[in-house]
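Pasting as-is:
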Amino acid sequence: MQEAEVSLSVALYYITKGLTKEDVRVSLDGAHIKTGDTIHFDIYGFLSSHNCRKVSGAVDSWQGMYEVDGYQPKVIISSTPGIGDVNITIADGKHLYVESKKGKEKNRSNSEYPLMREAIGQLMTGCQLDDNVVPVVAVPYSEKSYELACRWSQLKQIRLVGIKFMLVHDSEKAEII
């Protein structure tokens, strides 16, 4: 699962499960979508397969506002650096600030470890943490990401900051540790 897919799956999960009543903001790195003529992630195909339809934004750009059939909250997709990968306001008024990472790389064992550590570093240095912000690392589910999330969520420094780990199976299932 690629990083853009992880971020979009998190957004769709919160919308389709009724976990937010607010629009969800997703910021994707354009290089994760396409570089030159090489498409790395078929964002149009992904959004279409998840019943998303663009309702505003430039016709020739993947950036813009998308509605999800049958749901009020929209997905607002941009490519804005420094705002986190996904921003969600949940029912209790708290704000999820999510840093997403891709899944295990081909021919590379234990790539989850450095990717998850990078996301933790981004959370620690990239957002204002206060009582209303819940910092979240979102990664595809694997046995290794599950093991790391369980172990690291017990560390005192992770608990003090309040970092949560979201393991994404697909847009239908995600679990927070």
